[in-house]
Every structure is written in structure tokens, then in C-alpha cells.
Amino acid sequence: MNFDFSEAEQAFAEEVRRFLRANPLETFPVDGMDAGYGSGANSRAFLKALGAQGWLSMCWPTTYGGREQPMFMKLVLMEELALAGAPFGPLAGCWQTADAIIEYGTERLRREVLPAIARGEATFWQGYSEPDAGSDLLALKTEARRDGDHYLLSGHKIWSSHAGIATCGLVFARTSRESRRSRGFSMFVVPNGTPGMDIRPIRSLTGEVYHHEVFLDDVRVPVDLMLGPEGEGFQALLNGLDADRFWGRFYKAPALARVLRQLVDYANTTGGSAPLSRDPVVRRRLAAIAADIAALRLIFYRTGCLIRDGAPLTYETAMAKVYADETGQKLARLGMDLLGVWGPLRESSRWAKLGGQISHLYLTTLGHTIAGGTAEILRTSIAVRGLGLPAEPRAAAEPKAR
Amino acid sequence: MDFRPSPAQQILISTARAFLRQHCPPELAQRLAADERGFDETLWRRMAELGWPGLLIPPELGGSGGSVLDVILLVEEMGRAGLPGPFVTSAVVATSLLLAAGSAAQQKRLLPSLAAGERVASLAIVEESGSFDLDAVALECAIPGRLRGRKLFVKDAHVADDLLVAVRVGAAASLILVPTDRPGVARLPLDAISGEKLFEVTFDGVEVRPDDRLGSSGSVREVLASALRAGALARTAEMVGGAQRVLELAVEHAKTRVQGGRPIGGYQAIQHSCADLVRDVDASRALLYAAAWKLAEGLPAEADAALAKAYAGEACLAVARRGHQILGAISYCEEHPLHLIHKRIQAASLEFGDGQLHLETVARAIGLVSEASFPPSEAMTFPPGTP
Fold first, then answer.
1. Hey, are the CB atoms on B69 and A1 less than 8 Å from each other?
2. Domain limits at B180?
3. Interval B153-167: pLDDT, tens
4. HSE (CB half, 13 Å, CA atoms) of B232?
5. Closest residue of chain B to A295, computed from CA coordinates
6. In chain A, how many domains are there?
7. What pTM was estimated for this model as a whole?
8. Which CATH number characterizes residue A287's domain?
């Protein structure tokens, strides 16, 4: 066992901290809201700055312009950025898309998209969910019809994060009708602005826009923008979702640790006749959630070690995601309790405490146990894939193809 | 970073698991819990043959020179098997105290026989305050002099040859070594649901000699705090092992118990309960290992140990309670192993500091100020381990 970082990892963490000192976060304009996951707001300028450091492509093979750094360097980078509250919103999605392109992308994707990701110029929205295909993703109806060297995509995608400000969509569509439920799906990289694509914002309960719905009406996508072999997209999607649970939540523990630090400062300096920090209940609740955050961080690093070592994963990412999202909700609730009447005030309001970020966290975290696999779906997955409990029979058998 | 036990530690774990499966089946644990004396000499001797009581003791004093982390992994297996007895008290905490503060003569006299399992030592810390907080120790003693007063919740005092008694000499926290056969020492059993053998020990003018003192004339507070930390982690390991066993029992039951035409593990209500057990066990174990590793490496681990004990106390007890719900009525029977593991976890969550005590340590470590608190003794970053 060893719970320390290697010398190289420590040196890199120090390099990231130096970068953050030299480039104050206020100097980076923000393009899209912070959705509370821990990766901060969406800032194209910040992503480009990371690209200029060579950090976006540092783990790629040299063939694609990378430096073949160990995967743990990505964890070090994300932890430092999250502890600092940096706006690196699209980073994890960029990395996952790059990994998929390196693994099974076409020459064109490798030649055109990878360099753009490396420079911080390409970001992606996920076109997975549909109005009638949420937890039952395979009920999706979006179709891709082959037409010569192109596919024509038609359908209605929804809950696509920051689709309005990203450069490309990753659209999951049916390419053929097959007897096996999980076959006949493919993934496409679809540039924003392609004719026939209509991206509409969905204003959320936070009052801001994060999600979009996307209407696809015979959108022409060249064959070589298909990601992975035709009809085999489902396995790629599953791998992607599994990775998403890890990479899309890894930064939550350090981000929550940052919020906790602010709540501790608040408790130390605020209160009626005495600081809140003297209240034994306040002390215990803050200490208990510090334990949760510490455990959460270790759970993610343990999963990270398994991924690094190529060990098989069954339940680990699902468990880590549920734990991350529920801990975030717990901390947000504790923050609201601590702030009392000041809690619900928005960032823009007079008298807002801690920059109004606690009410924002409270609202955004509500969605986290729904997005990217609901807590219910994931608990079932932990039980079935991890513990070997029998799967529940499907409610209605599908009509068999003849 | 690496969460895996070393090859040598893996051998220790598999040896312990196989040994305890054979020599400490649930029926034996249940019988010892119900029995008034509840100490199996044969089992203890066999454990000694494997070198377990001497794991922390250096080879020159008859032990095998293992680390705190090794001991934690071993105790986790003991918790899984529900092994009763004085191992943690004697081989972890008392041994740590003797190693840290014992004179050369005390070490030479006691450690080889502790390592060989020929001798058992216990701890007398808690008083009527019911607290493991060292500030709560009020029993005064002059050295040399006569000791008068009582200690509570002294574990396995009936089989202990020596007691390490926390006292105050003037203002200084001190430790004295009192053989249980010294005139004036009386051991009165308490009756706890866990079946652990707990005692009130009374000292009625017991003679205390200068060479009974552990450590030099100064305070042994730090030494004592450090040994209690090792004890807290060992009992955390017991809780984690116990919770792991509950998880296994629950999953096995969910797969085989058929109701409504299918195994109950096919119903989401049961599946989701089982999923939460995994999280509680995994998270507790991760905190345990991280703290034990730090302790073994000689790094500051006060807050890490407190985090682990407080967290596991809550989480592992939740596992036990949920385990009853998953297993249903059968787990309510005395002959079923679950209840004893549950009660053990309950007992372990209290010894060497309950959640409240440890959370206060964490509260100070994360920088919460209070009138009564001093600045944190060590700068701690959160999450622990981050720069």
C-alpha cells in the first residue's frame, strides 16, 4: 500500500499550482454556467490555456501529439483545478472523446478532431437521452440512414449539457433494426452548425441554461465521422458511460472540500452572540461531512488505481458516482442549514453570503443523482454487476423480429 | 498510489482467514460470548504459535517486527470471524505502550512473554465519566504510594496478568503497571450485550512502586494518545471486517431466499439495500487503510484515525442494521451469526473513543475554532493527503 503521490506526480501538482498563481482565475471569461459537478464553469479561454500548457494531450500516444504521461497525471491536474475552483467544465468530456477517437476513431477524426481537442478548441455535448428514452436508453428513436458516403440523422435529443456553446455533438443513433436489443446502434461526431440541426436551450430551475434539446432533421454526417464500427456503438457507449461516471465525478471530492473550507470559515466568523463554530451540532455535522469527503476522495483514487492497473471493474464507478452525488447534496443541504435565511439568496443579491454559491450548489446538485445514470439505475447495477444478484425481469418483452 | 496489500500482507490475510474459518467458527464465537469466562486458551495458544500476539514486537524481544498496517489487516480478519478475546487490548494497545514508554527492564520482562501469548495485558483508562478522552482521567496516584479508586470498562481483566492504568501524578498524565494479583485489586464483571468481557476494577490501597511507572517522570500523554489511536484503528478494522461479513451474509441470503417465485435479491428494494452496504464497507475500509498506512509510515495521522473511526462507527453499524432487515426473521435468532457481529461492531464503535469524541478531533483538524479548543496540533489539509 501507498497513499502518497509519486515524486513526478507531486512535481506536476506543484507545476499546476504555479500555473494557477501566474494566471488568476478572474482573467478567464466564462461562457457557460457552473453545473455544480466540481469542474466549475465552462470557459473556452481557460481550456485553451490548459491546451497551451500541453496538458490536454499529455497522456496521448506520441503519434497523436501526446507525451504518453501516466493516466494519474490527469487525476492530479483535475484535483488541483477543482481545489482552486477553476472553470474547467468541458475537460473530462474532451478527454473521454479523445480516448474514444484514439481507440477506435477513423483517420479523419484522428487528424481533424484530436489536434482541436489538444488546443482546447473542441468541446462536446452528449446526444444520448431522448424524451422517451431516459433510463431506458435503448428505447431511443433517433435514426441514421445511410446515403452514399453520408448518414442522414433524424431524431430528438434532450438534456445535452452546454450543447449551445460546444463545437460538436456525440450523437447516439440507431443504424439498423436488429433482433438483439443492444445491437444496431452507432455513435456519430456531429459538428454544431451542420444544416438540419436545431439546438434549443432549456432553462433550468436554477434560472440559467445548462441543458439543451437538439432536433435533428436529416442532418448529413460523413461516414468517416462515425465513431467506432457501425452497429457496435452500444458497447462503446457503455464503456463511455462507465468512464463518464468516473471522470465526470472525480473532481467532486476536491470541489466539495473547497466548499467545506468556506463553510468552516463562515462558521468561525459568523453567528449571533457566538460564532456558529462553537455549536457542538455544527461542529459534528461539518466534521462528519469532512469524513464523507475524505472517504469519497479515496473511493475515487482506489477506482483510479484499478483503471490504471487495467483491473476489471464491475460496480466501482457506479458506486463512486452515487456516493459523489449524494455527498454533494448532503453538503449543499448542510450549507443551506448553516446559512439560514441568507442561504437562498442568489449570487446577484444584496446580502448574499459566500457569493450565493450555496443556493446554486443546492439547486444544481438536485440534478446530479438523475444525470448520467440515476441513483436507482446505478444501485441496481451495483447489485447485479457487482454483487451478482439476479436482474429483475423486464416488464414487457420486446416484439421479436421475424 | 496503491491500495493493494503487499504480497507478504496478502499471505498474512489468507493465512488468518483460513485459520479463523477452521478454529473460530460462528458457533465457537457464540459459545464464548454466552460463557461467563469466554476465553479459549487453546485458540489463544494456537494464535500465539502463528506469532500474532508478537506481531508488533521486534524480533530481539521475541516478536516478528510487523507494522501497524499488518496488525490492522490481521484484525480485520478477526472482525470478520467475530473472534472474541484480548488481542487488540493486549497485543496492540498495551504492547504499543510498553514499546513506546516501557523501561528496558519492563520491556525485557514483559514483551517476550506477551509475544509468546503466555501473558495478557489490559488497559484501565475509563472512569465514571465514561470517556476515553485523556483529559477525563481523574484517578490520582502518588509514586511510590497507594492507589485508591476505580476504573470501568476494563476489557478482559479476568484473563489479564497486568493492567496498564492511566492515572494523574500531580497534573501529569501517567501510566502505571499493576499486576492483577497485587493485593487490593478486585475485578467485578459488567454484563454487556456484545458478550465482550468488561470489568469494573477497583483499587483498594494497592501498593504502587517506583518501577511500576511507565515512562520517565514527564507526561506520557502523547504516548498514550498514540497507543489509543492504534487501538481505535484496530477496533475500526474489526468493524470493517464485521461489516464485510454482514455484506457476505446478506448477499448470500438475497441470492438463495426465494419468495414470490424468485430470489429476493431480484427485487430492487433488496438490491438497493445491498448496494448501500457495499459503499459503507468500501468507504470505511479506504479510510481505515489510509490512516493505518500513515501511522505505519510515521506520518501525522491523528485526524485520519479519528475520521476513520467516526465514519466506520456509523457506516458499519448501519450495515449491521440493514443486514438484519435483508436477512429477515432468521437473523433474529440467537443461533444465527449476524447479531453477534452486530453487537461486536457496536462495542468496537465505542472503545477508544466514540463517534462524538473522534468527530471533535476532526472538527479541530478542519479548522473549526471553539472557546475550549487549541489550534490544531498538526496542519491538516482537506481532503487528507492533498497538498
1. yes
2. 121-214
3. 999 999 999 999 999
4. 32
5. B283
6. 3
7. 0.95
8. 1.20.140.10
